[in-house]
Automatic annotation (TrEMBL):
Xref: InterPro entries: CheY-like_superfamily (IPR011006), NreC/VraR/RcsB-like_REC (IPR058245), Sig_transdc_resp-reg_C-effctor (IPR016032), Sig_transdc_resp-reg_receiver (IPR001789), Tscrpt_reg_LuxR_C (IPR000792), WalR-like (IPR039420)
Record's keyword annotation contains Amino-acid biosynthesis: no
Protein's recorded name: Stage 0 sporulation protein A homolog
Keyword Transcription: yes
SUPFAM superfamilies documented for this protein: C-terminal effector domain of the bipartite response regulators (SSF46894), CheY-like (SSF52172)
Organism the protein comes from: Symbiobacterium thermophilum
PANTHER family recorded: TRANSCRIPTIONAL REGULATORY PROTEIN NARL-RELATED, TWO-COMPONENT RESPONSE REGULATOR
Gene Ontology terms: biological process: phosphorelay signal transduction system; regulation of DNA-templated transcription
Modification 4-aspartylphosphate, positions: 58
Amino acid sequence: MDGRKIRIMIVDDQSLLRRGLAALLNRNPDMEVVGEASSGEEALRMAAELKPDVILMDVRMPGMDGVTATRELVRSGTAAGVIILTTFDDDEYIFEGLAAGARGYLLKDAEYDELSQAIRTVAAGESLLQPQITTRVLKEFSRLSSMAASRPKARPLVEPLTERETEVLRLMASGASNQDIAEKLFIGQGTVKHHVRSIFAKLGARDRVHAILLAQELNLV
């Protein structure tokens, strides 16, 4: 970000949860909750008006659910990054949400610091998955392997990944952040970012999550 506060919109049909999250996040000096929506339909209207940087999206809501709302937001060309908030029994939504264009998945019981860092990560243009969610995404991907229309289309690699890029990719698939990868491989974060960009280019991936799914299809992870 350029020094201004990260503008956040919270979408959940439970008003107490929305207000609680807003109160917590507004404690961060670099964040501001600019809107709260109780449904997917309301989220679409408010996002167009408020232009948030990050949208925290519940999955299960009456009317338009979070997955559909995410899909429509992405289609509308919103610049906001969507983080879907989920529970452990929402497995059936995980792959659909990512395929719809969500930039991250976070468990609702995530710690305050973890949620805050996730928002900063997505606001910076990156994607994220908690390690617990990464495992479930890969399992869901395998389960839905027969649904070709819903899968990201992996193309054969014109240029193979280097050994180091493969290491970085596998750590990404484990849920590691750029900082985690840098520490594990004893390299700088700038070098990690260079490898990540190269991986995206070779896989034809739009972001971190998409890269993991495409790598799974190509049996790279």
